[in-house]
Design goal:
By secondary structure, the chain is mainly α. The protein contains 3 helices and no strands. α1 packs antiparallel against α2 and α1 crosses α3. The chain is elongated.
Length: 74
């Protein structure tokens, strides 16, 4: 699998976990599922960084996001 897809999936999981964490804290309950999603997302990002020679820069992450988006859109 392409490291760009893994990176975008991991970043997507990290972004989607933020509202769940905020909701758990605002309702005074432990964010168990949210933390699992954070660990999965961080793991995917780490795998993508390890799989791509030289890793990613911020510009490289943006380019990877656009490459993955372009494969789905057109």
């Amino acid at each position: 699998m392409d490291p760009d897809f893994i990176l975008v999936a991991g970043l997507g999981l990290l972004v989607l976990s933020v509202p769940s964490i905020l909701s758990a804290f605002s309702e005074s309950r432990p964010p168990r599922v949210s933390l699992i999603v954070v660990f999965l997302g961080a793991g995917l990002v780490a795998i993508a960084m390890y799989a791509k020679p030289g890793g990613y820069t911020l510009q490289g992450m943006a380019n990877a996001f656009y490459r993955v988006l372009s494969t789905f859109v057109g």
